[in-house]
Amino acid sequence: MIIGTASLLFAGNSDRKLLEDKHKDARVECSFCHKETPPQQSVPTAVCLECHGNYDAIVKATEKVEPNPHDSHEGKLDCSVCHHVHKESEFYCSHCHTFGLKVP
Q1: Distance (Å, rounded) from C-alpha 64 to C-alpha 84?
Q2: Of 4, 17, 1, which is closest to residue 70 (Cα–Cα)?
Q3: Domain count along the chain
């Protein structure tokens, strides 16, 4: 199952909720992603892809975003490079580029 589309991922960024809050709103419990109790380790990308689809599906879901943040010359980056659950996310590409995209 793919959760999220380009419109869900990049629209409405004035709502700067943390991904932690968005997951809670979607009734995604901590234990769905964290396999240890209490949670102490970062969640690997493979766990993200269990709900959000394979990397190619995510590239397709964001194909109308210019530039497509998931179709990068850097290759298939770990989700956590941009998407942070418990702190504000960041656009990794902004380290070198000025595209102005906000990351959920």
Answers
A1: 23
A2: 4
A3: 1
